[in-house]
Design a protein that fits this description.
Blueprint: E1 3-7, H1 11-22, E2 26-30, E3 42-45, E4 48-51, E5 57-58, H2 63-70, E6 77-78, E7 86-88, E8 94-96, H3 112-118, H4 120-127, H5 143-151, H6 153-168, H7 177-180, H8 184-191, H9 194-204, E9 211-214, H10 219-232, E10 235-237, E11 242-246, E12 249-252, E13 257-259, E14 262-265, H11 273-276, E15 285-293, E16 305-308, E17 321-324, H12 325-328, H13 330-335, E18 340-348, H14 349-352, H15 357-372, E19 381-389, E20 402-404, H16 407-410, H17 414-433
Parallel strand pairs: 1-2, 1-14, 2-10, 7-16, 14-20
Antiparallel strand pairs: 3-4, 5-9, 6-9, 7-8, 11-12, 12-13, 15-18, 15-19, 16-17, 17-18
Helix pairs in contact: 1-10, 1-17, 3-4, 5-6, 8-9
The protein binds flavin-adenine dinucleotide.
Flavin-adenine dinucleotide is lined by residues 7-13, 30-33, 38-40, 53-58, 241-242, 266-269, 274-275, 285, 287, 389, 406-407, 412-415, 417.
C-alpha cells in the first residue's frame, strides 16, 4: 500500500487525506493546532453556534456542493436570502450592490444600479470598455490594473474593491485575475469587452445567488470530513506542527522524522507562528460578532449585509464589511429567538488588533448602527465575540517531490482551494495507478 503524509488539517488537507485514503493510500494527517478545519471554524455566541471563519462558498462551479454531496450533506446546502448585500460608498451613502456583476465588475456599466453607486460620469467611463478592442488590458494579470484600464478608477475603487476586500481581504491590485475570476480574460478576448465577458460568465453560471452555505454552518463540512477520515482509517495527529518537508520526509517540531511515499503540504510552512501555537500578533482580519435583540432589524434593512468602499479620509479603525447573518441564513434565524440578530463585522487587523475587547465591542455597535441605518443601543447587545485571523497564505516556494495544495497555491476561497486539491489528488492517484 503506498503511504502519504498530509501536512495541515484545514479544508485542503482534509479533502486531500480523504481522496488519498479512498484511492488506496495509507494516510497520516499532521495538524499543528488542537483542532481541524483551519479557517473554517466555529464558536458559540449567546448559545448560537456560528461560523467564526468562512461562512459560505462560491457556486459558480459545482466543486463545494459536489464535496458536500459526497459527504452526505447534499440536502443541507442552503441558499442565502436572495435580497443580496448592500454597498456603502466612500461618501457614506448605501445602495443595493449592483446585480449584474462578477466581483463587483459591472456587466452593464450604464445600468441604473451602477450609476447610483459610482455616479453617471464614472459609469460612462466604465462603458468606454465596450468601445475598446478586446485585447486592451488582456495581458494584465492584476485584477485591479485590468479593471482600472478598461472601466476606470472609480468603478474599481467604488465597486470592485469593496467586494474583493470583503471576500478575499485583498485590494484588486493584489489579486490575480485568473485565480479569482478564472476564464474572465479569455472571455474578454472572445467577446471583445470586459463587460461582455462578465455577462457571459454570469450567464454560464447556475441560476440564483453566487454563494451557498450549509445548514448549521460551514463547520459541518469539517465535521463530516473528520468522520470520514476516522471511518476510512486515516491517522490524524493533532498538536503535531511540522517544521520541514521534503520528498518522502517530514520533520516535526519535536524532532521526529516521518517517512512516506508521498508528502503533501497543505499548510503555510513559511509562517513559523503556526508551529508555536502562539496567536498572531499582527492578524490581518479581526471579526467582531454582536448578538443583539433589536426588532428594528427584523426587516433586514440592508439585505444580507454591507460592503464598505473606503474614502481616502477614512479612519483605519472602521468596519470594512458587515454580514447580517440572521438575515442572510434562514436556518440561523430559525435557531435564534424572535427579534434576535447576529451581526458580524470585519476589521482591518493592523488597526483593530491594538484595541481592547471593550473598545472593539463599542466600535462594532457604533459601526453596525451606522451601516444598517439604525441606531443600535448598548442594552440591545446580548453577547459579543472577537476572532482574529492571519493574512491569507502567500504562494509557497516549490519543493521538489512535494505536492503543494491549499490557499497559498489556489488563492483564497473554498471553491478555489477544493478545486485545486481535487486536481492534485487526481494526479497523485493516477501516478500510483501508472
Ligand atoms: C474570516 C475569514 C472568512 C472567510 N470567509 C470565506 C467564505 O465565506 N467563503 C470562502 O469560500 N472562503 C472564505 N475564507 C477563505 C477560506 O476560509 C480559506 O481560503 C480556506 O479555508 C483555506 O483553506 P486551507 O486548508 O488552504 O488553509 P487553512 O484553513 O489555513 O488550513 C491550514 C491548516 O494548516 C495548519 N498548519 C499551519 N502550519 C502548520 C504546520 N507547520 N504543521 C502542521 N499544520 C500546520 C493550520 O493550523 C491549519 O489548520 C475566509 C477566510 C477567513 C479568514
Amino acid at each position: 500500500m503506498p503511504s502519504a503524509i498530509v501536512v495541515g488539517g484545514g479544508i485542503a488537507g482534509l479533502v486531500m487525506a480523504r481522496d488519498l485514503v479512498l484511492g488506496g493510500f495509507e494516510v497520516t494527517l499532521l495538524e499543528a493546532s488542537d483542532h481541524l478545519g483551519g479557517k473554517i471554524a466555529r464558536h458559540t455566541v449567546a448559545g448560537l453556534v456560528l461560523d467564526a471563519g468562512a461562512e459560505s462558498f462560491a457556486t459558480r462551479h459545482d466543486t463545494v456542493a459536489h464535496l458536500a454531496r459526497q459527504l452526505g450533506l447534499g440536502s443541507d446546502i442552503a441558499r442565502p436570502n436572495p435580497q443580496g448585500a448592500w454597498l456603502q460608498t466612500a461618501e457614506g451613502r448605501a445602495y443595493p450592490l449592483p446585480r449584474t456583476g462578477i466581483l463587483g465588475i459591472p456587466g452593464t456599466p450604464l445600468a441604473a444600479d451602477v450609476i447610483e453607486v459610482v455616479g453617471f460620469w464614472a459609469a460612462l467611463r466604465g462603458q468606454l470598455d465596450e468601445l475598446m478592442l478586446g485585447f486592451v488590458g488582456s495581458k494584465e494579470r492584476s485584477l485591479g490594473r485590468l479593471v482600472r484600464r478598461r472601466m476606470g478608477r472609480r468603478v474599481l475603487e467604488q465597486l470592485v474593491a469593496p467586494v474583493t476586500l470583503g471576500i478575499h481581504s485583498r485590494h484588486p491590485d493584489e489579486l490575480d485575475v485568473d485565480v479569482v475570476a478564472p476564464g474572465l480574460r479569455a472571455a474578454m478576448l472572445d467577446t471583445g469587452s470586459l463587460a461582455h465577458a462578465v455577462r457571459e460568465l454570469r450567464d454560464a453560471a447556475p441560476a440564483g445567488t453566487a454563494v451557498s452555505g450549509i445548514v448549521g454552518g460551514m463547520f459541518e463540512l469539517v465535521e463530516a470530513l473528520a468522520r470520514d477520515l476516522e471511518r476510512f482509517g486515516v491517522t490524524v495527529r493533532l498538536k503535531s506542527p511540522v517544521t520541514a518537508v521534503e520528498a518522502s520526509f517530514v520533520t516535526l517540531l519535536d524532532g521526529q522524522l516521518l517517512e512516506a511515499d508521498q508528502v503533501v503540504l497543505a499548510a503555510p510552512l513559511a509562517n513559523p507562528l503556526a508551529t508555536t501555537g502562539q496567536p498572531d500578533p499582527t492578524p490581518a482580519i479581526v471579526l467582531a460578532t454582536l448578538v443583539v435583540d433589536a426588532p428594528e432589524l427584523d426587516g433586514a434593512p440592508r439585505g444580507t449585509g454591507v460592503l464598505v468602499a473606503r474614502g481616502s479620509s477614512d479612519a483605519p479603525f472602521r468596519a470594512k464589511a458587515l454580514t447580517h447573518a440572521t438575515a442572510k441564513w434562514d436556518w440561523l434565524a430559525e435557531r435564534a429567538t424572535p427579534h434576535r440578530h447576529v451581526l458580524r463585522l470585519s476589521y482591518d487587523g493592523a488597526a483593530a488588533a491594538r484595541v481592547s475587547d471593550a473598545q472593539l465591542r463599542g466600535q462594532a455597535l457604533h459601526d453596525a448602527g451606522e451601516l444598517l441605518g439604525i441606531a443600535l443601543v448598548e442594552v440591545s447587545v446580548v453577547a459579543f465575540a472577537r476572532v482574529e485571523w492571519s493574512a491569507p497564505s502567500s504562494r509557497p516556494e516549490p519543493i521538489d517531490g512535494v505536492t503543494l495544495i491549499g490557499e497559498g497555491v489556489a488563492g483564497t476561497g473554498l471553491a478555489a482551494v477544493i478545486a485545486q486539491v481535487r486536481v492534485a489528488s487526481g494526479g497523485l492517484l493516477e501516478e500510483v495507478e501508472a
